């Protein structure tokens, strides 16, 4: 199946897409920086300490310490909530894995196992009787088959040979 677009056109489009993504990424970085500066300028008032007496500076320090304590408490609460949510998500993921099954089941393949090996696998060390199924098969001598083939007509010989080649034990 041939592609409807040439390789050079595909490469050109890919490079254009990468250039556009780079531009958008750089613009996003600039936008985040300006948003951060705007937010900080709203929340933080400039600190004017010039012309203040010692007692006024001490009061200002106390106010700042109180604000830092409040912000630190909020940060701690948010961090605790975040850790709790992370643990809960982890537990839920484990539950999902347990419900779904941890491992992807591989496609099963046919494996040739002898009867002895199968009984050993099922029964373990209890299995002592040897089951040699091939020993119970009727043995056919080559001379007998040649005599049978000679006595049959040509069509029967071809049919017999065709059937023998289709069988799994045919030689």
Keywords:
171 residues, 5 helices, mainly alpha
Give the strand content.
under 5%
Series of secondary-structure elements, N-terminal to C-terminal: HHHHH
Helix content: 55-70%
Low-pLDDT parts are: none
**Rg from Cα:** 42 Å
Cα end-to-end separation:
42 Å
pLDDT averaged over residues:
81
Q: Biggest β-sheet, characterized?
A: none
GO molecular function: actin binding
Function: Troponin I is the inhibitory subunit of troponin, the thin filament regulatory complex which confers calcium-sensitivity to striated muscle actomyosin ATPase activity.
Organism: Antrostomus carolinensis (Chuck-will's-widow)
Keywords: Acetylation, Actin-binding, Coiled coil, Muscle protein
Your description of this structure?
- The protein has 5 helices and no strands.
- With 171 residues, it is mainly α.
- Among the domains are: 34 residues; 44 residues.
- The radius of gyration is 42 Å and the shape is elongated.
- The relative contact order is 0.02.
- The model has no long low-confidence stretch (mean pLDDT 81).
- Keywords: Acetylation, Actin-binding, Coiled coil, Muscle protein.
- It comes from Antrostomus carolinensis.
